[in-house]
Design goal:
The complex is a heterotrimer of chains A (about 260), B (about 350) and C (about 290).
Chain A: H1 6-29, H2 46-53, H3 55-88, H4 93-103, H5 106-119, H6 126-150, H7 155-162, H8 167-196, H9 199-204, H10 212-222, H11 226-249, H12 252-260
Helix pairs in contact in A: 1-11, 2-11, 3-6, 3-8, 3-10, 4-6, 6-8, 6-12, 7-8, 8-11
Chain B: E1 4-13, E2 16-26, E3 31-35, H1 42-50, E4 57-62, E5 65-66, E6 77-80, H2 92-102, H3 110-120, H4 136-148, E7 154-158, H5 166-183, E8 186-191, H6 194-200, E9 203-208, E10 211-216, H7 218-223, H8 228-233, E11 238-248, E12 251-256, E13 260-265, E14 275-280, E15 286-288, E16 298-309, E17 313-320, E18 325-331, E19 346-351, E20 357-360
Parallel strand pairs in B: 3-8, 3-9, 6-7, 7-8
Antiparallel strand pairs in B: 1-2, 1-4, 4-5, 9-10, 11-12, 11-14, 12-13, 14-20, 15-19, 16-17, 16-19, 17-18
Chain C: H1 4-24, H2 50-57, H3 59-92, H4 95-110, H5 113-124, H6 129-140, H7 152-176, H8 180-188, H9 193-221, H10 225-230, H11 238-248, H12 252-284
Classes of the chains: A mainly alpha (about 260), B alpha+beta (about 350), C mainly alpha (about 290).
Chain lengths: ~260, ~350, ~290
């Protein structure tokens, strides 16, 4: 290990501060007894109380939850299948389709789905948003599952077949248990991505459906109150818990997020 | 009829021929070894017996039945993998039970068969452990137990001892020999280690470049190698090639460049002028300070150029006046362990005519 | 078999919409917005290149594309400068710390996109400490107060903020694989710290740099939420234009044209980055 000079440490610390101070400010001001997010006045839980009583917010949270769960379940099943397929066979089309939604700017996926749904006379609502979310979540799950498979010892499936297991039994009794942590981690990731999504949801939600991020958006644009800070803090907490859980379940999650960037 | 019949099996990977028209048979209850360097095709051949690969030509027959239509899970053949391939998420018991589970053996019959298998490999009491809690040798034993629990017709072992250290390897070699005798199942063993092959096998097939060079019992492979490759691959060997210049009854003389005429007794009848090689094991050569009293045979004078002191024996590399190298093995002094000769000593090398082995070319 | 369902889903909900959008870019806008019928009143198929012609004839669109590219490029550069020391530090730290350090870099990425934008709204807000500090400093020099919020500055800062993890990760992945002894050898041969960095470390890290640049530049090119919330009227980027066309002006064909051009740019860049990565992949292993 080479020694790292003080300059390196300083600049790295600046980078970490840059990453976390803004989020910290949001959290801190959620407890601030002042309408303006300007300076600290006093501690209060008022904004959280307001949140609990805010009908629009709770409705939006409910929508986000429903969409999140359904999107995560479907994309986990499809993503696992895709991950297994990509690991086993040299595929051409599937990897492209899987990774494209992640590679191109979100607005493009959102806009194309908008045209698609309208042309097919599909009413925009919870279902259209869920479908949109599944489209980009499949890729994440597939990447995580494929990474997990890649780290698995290949000879184990052969040994299972050698012991008399059909290909399906080999998958069921040996491969599946070993990739399950990855699958669960992928599901948690998909849920988080769905809850947090803004851009794609913006275009595919239509007039009547509000999700949590959309609600936050309208609050930001129209009237900013620290209620936004409160809901943001809660969301961040939820995300933190989910991601740390996912990382604990599947330590390779970190590496596969890295790999997906290459 | 042999238990396992390999008939004219060939396997190609693109331009590369991994197994080239190999035919051999394995008898019931024998310990059969495929021996050869990396890339000689032994593992490919093993995989075709197990069913993980299908031959491009030829057939693999078990008890007369062609196995081509049977996938690995349907063959009564079990493999012990080089990396053991134990299922990490199952206990030892779970691992050994797996084949029974796949064969739909009734659950009440399983514990007894598992216990018997673990007893065979001397791992009774380890059933609740997980693979990561076991040592290398223990893992190997579990792999063997798992492979034997359904009483397969043939057990395939793919260099199972390669990852273990020398002492453990020796211990397990003896265990494997005894185990094989006890269960009476035919073993097909793959290794690149010729000492291991000589120690374990009833018969050895020496393979090179996808072909079987020689198939025989260990002593004949060692004493009568039928090609330069086999002679060189098995143990240490002096190889002298040249043209046949004289034949007198069973004694043939070859003119070896920079050494001179070398005489060997052989049953083959090479024509004068044809090429041949004499294979001579270092321990067959007598090395002494002066000329031996009994003269017939071959003798040459030389200087000790290098030596390797190995504790119990010393290997001497002697250079003759013509520039040839002769490698001889001599036990060191029983009492002191000291070697008898030093670098630079003038010595006499000799061996009788029936010591070497003639290989026609 | 197992690739069937996911393949089917994506063909229907990703490939098909994409193709439909391509088609839409050649159609005419409907009377009340959206798309006009494919077959018009006289039975002819109504396809034209009006949208594409507009792109070429009206310079404002080219300007927007250039501006977007400029923002994206600047973001990429700043991210690179910030990410490099961080990635180096993580690559050099003890194995047991690395996962934690990487997790800390990635965590903000997992928080809601809007929250990250909102945070900068607070920080750069006119009443917040930072703005007041800057304006007080400016007042000292007799300059007029400058709004930090709703400006190009705000957009850029936030762009860097959300893109930083994407530059750190590929850089780290590359730097981690560097052979330490190369630097020792260079030092042994007389190179000082800067020379070792510039002549050895940096060239070897180029594949990571390119990967990170692609991961930052391409999304930044198509960003819309950040300029929408934090930007001023001058900060209209391609993403904003597309949103306008689809949800306000409702000229869907033209919106599709813009989207197609953006997609083409994104794919070309992604393809280029992949090609470069494959080319220099061999060299980094030397």
């Amino acid at each position: 290990m080479r020694k790292s000079g003080p300059w390196l440490w300083a600049s790295a610390l600046v980078a970490y501060a840059f990453l976390y101070v803004p989020l910290a400010i949001v959290v801190v001001y959620s407890f601030n007894d002042s309408r303006l997010n300007a300076e600290w006045v006093g501690f209060t839980l008022d904004w959280y109380r307001k949140l609990a009583g805010d009908g629009a917010m709770t409705a939006a949270a409910g929508n986000s939850l429903v969409i999140g769960i359904s999107a995560s379940v479907v994309s986990t099943v499809l993503g696992t299948m895709a991950g297994v397929a990509m690991h086993r066979y040299r595929l051409r089309v599937l990897p492209l389709l899987i990774l494209a939604p992640i590679a191109i700017p979100e607005i493009l996926t959102g806009v194309s789905l908008l045209i698609f749904f309208v042309m097919l006379n599909v009413t925009l609502g919870l279902v259209s948003v869920a479908i949109a979310h599944i489209t980009f979540c499949i890729g994440f799950v597939a990447i995580v599952v494929r990474a997990r498979l890649a780290g698995m010892d290949e000879t184990l499936t052969e040994a299972a077949r050698d012991c008399g297991a059909s290909p399906w039994n080999a998958f069921r009794y040996v491969t599946l248990p070993l990739i399950t942590p990855g699958v669960i981690a992928g599901a948690l990731m998909a849920f988080t991505l769905s809850i947090d999504d803004f851009v794609i949801t913006f275009f595919t939600a239509g007039a009547g459906t509000i999700t949590l991020p959309l609600q936050i958006y309208s609050m930001i644009k129209i009237s900013v109150t620290p209620e936004v800070n409160a809901v943001s803090t809660l969301l961040m907490l939820l995300t933190l818990v989910l991601i740390v859980t996912a990382a604990r379940i599947s330590p390779t999650l970190l590496r596969s997020t890295q790999e997906s960037t290459s | 009829m042999a238990l396992l019949d390999i008939k004219g099996v060939t396997r190609r990977f693109g331009e590369f021929t991994a197994v080239d028209n190999v035919s051999l048979s394995v008898e019931a209850g024998e310990f059969f070894t495929l021996l050869g360097p990396s890339g000689c095709g032994k593992t490919t051949l093993l995989r075709m017996i197990a069913g993980f690969d299908l031959p491009d030509a030829g057939s693999v027959l078990l008890d007369g039945e062609d196995l081509a239509h049977r996938p690995p899970e349907a063959r009564p053949v079990r493999t012990v993998f080089q990396s053991y391939a134990l299922f990490p998420h199952m206990t030892v018991e779970g691992n050994v039970a797996f084949p029974l589970q796949m064969a739909k053996v009734p659950p009440r019959d399983r514990p007894q068969r598992i216990a018997a298998a673990l007893e065979d490999v001397r791992l009774t009491g380890y059933d609740k452990r997980f693979p990561h809690e076991l040592s290398g040798g223990q893992k190997q034993r579990v792999a063997v137990a798992r492979a034997l629990v359904t009483h397969p017709a043939v057990l395939l072992l793919d260099e199972p001892l390669a990852a273990l250290d020398a002492k453990l390897r020796e211990e397990l070699q003896i265990e494997l020999i005894n185990l094989q005798k006890d269960v009476g199942i035919a073993f097909v063993y793959v290794t690149h280690d010729q000492t291991e092959a000589l120690a374990l096998s009833h018969r050895i097939a020496v393979m090179n470049h996808g072909r079987v060079e020689q198939l025989d019992v260990p002593s004949r492979i060692y004493g009568f190698p039928n090609s330069r490759f086999v002679a060189d691959f098995i143990g240490q060997c002096n190889l002298y090639s040249g043209q046949v210049v004289a034949r007198d009854g069973t004694i043939v003389a070859i003119d070896v460049p920079s050494l001179g005429p070398v005489r060997v007794a052989t049953r083959s009848e090479p024509a004068l002028g044809s090429s041949g090689t004499i294979a001579l094991r270092p321990e067959q050569i007598r090395i002494a300070a002066g000329a031996p009293a009994d003269a017939p045979g071959n003798h040459y004078r030389g200087t000790v150029a290098d030596l390797l002191y190995m504790g119990d024996v010393t290997v001497y590399k002697v250079e003759t006046s013509g520039g040839s190298r002769i490698e001889a093995l001599l036990a060191n002094s029983q009492g002191s362990g000291a070697k008898f000769f030093e670098v630079g000593d003038q010595v006499e090398m000799s061996w009788p005519v029936d010591a070497g082995h003639f290989i026609a070319e | 078999m197992v690739s069937g369902p996911p393949l089917a889903f994506l063909l229907v909900f990703f490939a098909a919409p994409a193709l439909i959008m391509v088609l839409a870019s050649f159609r005419s806008p409907g009377e009340f917005g959206g798309l006009a019928p494919l077959v018009d009143a006289s039975g002819r198929i109504d396809l034209n290149v009006d949208g594409y012609a507009r792109l070429v004839t009206e310079p404002v669109f080219a300007q927007v594309f250039v501006k977007s590219a400029g923002y994206a490029a600047l973001t990429t550069l700043v991210c690179l400068l910030l990410a490099y020391p961080l990635a180096t530090l993580i690559a050099r730290s003890a194995k047991k710390h690395r996962d934690l350090l990487l997790l800390l870099v990635i965590l903000p990425f997992w928080s809601n996109f809007l929250i990250r934008i909102y945070a900068w709204m607070i920080i750069l807000g006119p009443n917040a400490a930072l703005a007041r500090l800057v304006n007080r400093a400016l007042a000292v020099f007799g300059a007029d107060p400058v709004p930090l919020l709703f400006s190009a500055f705000a957009v850029l800062v936030c762009l860097v903020y959300v893109s930083l993890p994407f530059m750190v990760l590929p850089l780290y992945a590359n730097l981690e694989k560097h052979d330490r002894t190369l630097l020792d050898a260079a030092q042994d041969l007389g190179a000082n710290a800067w020379q070792r960095f510039w002549r050895i470390t940096f060239p070897l890290s180029l594949p990571g740099v390119y990967a990170g640049a692609a991961l930052v530049f391409i999304p930044a090119l198509g960003v819309f939420a950040i300029p929408d919330i934090l930007g001023g009227p001058d900060d209209t980027l391609i993403g904003n234009l597309i949103k306008q066309q689809f949800l306000e002006t409702r000229d869907w064909p033209f919106g599709s044209v813009l989207s197609i051009v953006l997609t083409a740019a994104a794919l070309a860049l992604a393809g280029g980055a992949a090609w470069v990565a494959r080319r220099s992949g061999g060299a980094s292993r030397a």
